[in-house]
Amino acid sequence: MEQIRKYFEKNLKMSDQDWKAFSSKIERCEYPKKHLLLKTGQIEKHLSFVEKGIIRFYLPKEENDLTFTFVFDDGFVSAYDSFLTQQASAYQVETLEKTILWRISYDDLQTIYQETEIGNTIGRHASEDLFLKKSKRELSLLNDTAEQRYLKLFSEQPQLIKQIPLKYIASYIGITPQALSRIRKRIS
């Protein structure tokens, strides 16, 4: 839980009272590898902070799933569009390894917003983190080659990227597993 406080206190100062109110609403959850946190058609009920783990967002397809996001340690994770609107998700969210999350429910977050001075700032920081990652991903898809996207992912998370199956990485950077193999061979 202290990991979350340290994350927030990089940008803002939380009083012990605000931290106590916020921390009383979050719960620690452990999930095994390959656990579906959210299925297509379900409504996202939590905003979570990843203490440890790797999470994949994807569109399930008959032949090959389309992976569009990974979330690693010290990041926020949520099917945020579903969370904000409380409407069904069009995609799935799963753990790729044993994962530890600190979760706050939609209703509890609304309470924190109303009852604490710092609540809206906490919510803003979490949503800004999610937005910046999404924006970075979209710009990368528009501006970078598949090789550049692979190299960026590898340079940002070198120790974790080795734990993600190549078929998911290939889908994430928008190529086939065979094309990823050629890229990996060329750069090694």
Outline the structure in words.
It is a single chain. With 188 residues, the protein is of the alpha+beta class. It has 2 domains: 2-143, Jelly Rolls; 144-188, no CATH class. It has 9 helices and 8 strands. The chain has helices at residues 2-9, 16-23, 80-85, 106-115, 119-143, 146-156, 158-161, 166-173, 177-187, and strands at 27-31, 36-38, 46-52, 55-59, 66-71, 76-77, 92-95, 99-105. Helix 4 (106-115) packs across helix 5 (119-143) and helix 8 crosses helix 9. The model has no long low-confidence stretch (mean pLDDT 90). This is DNA-binding protein. Pfam families: cNMP_binding. Keywords: DNA-binding. GO terms for molecular function: DNA binding.
Number of domains: 2
The value of Rg in angstroms is 17 Å
For CATH, the homologous superfamily of the largest domain is named as Jelly Rolls
Number of strands: 8
Helix content percent band: 40-55%
What series of H and E elements makes up the topology?
A: HHEEEEEEHEEHHHHHH
CATH class bucket of the largest domain: Mainly Beta
Question: Tell me, what's the shape?
Answer: globular
Which structural class do the helices and strands define? alpha+beta
The fold-level CATH name of the largest domain is: Jelly Rolls
Architecture (CATH level 2) name of the largest domain: Sandwich
Protein name: DNA-binding protein
Domain Cyclic nucleotide-binding: 30-115
GO molecular function: DNA binding
Pfam families: cNMP_binding
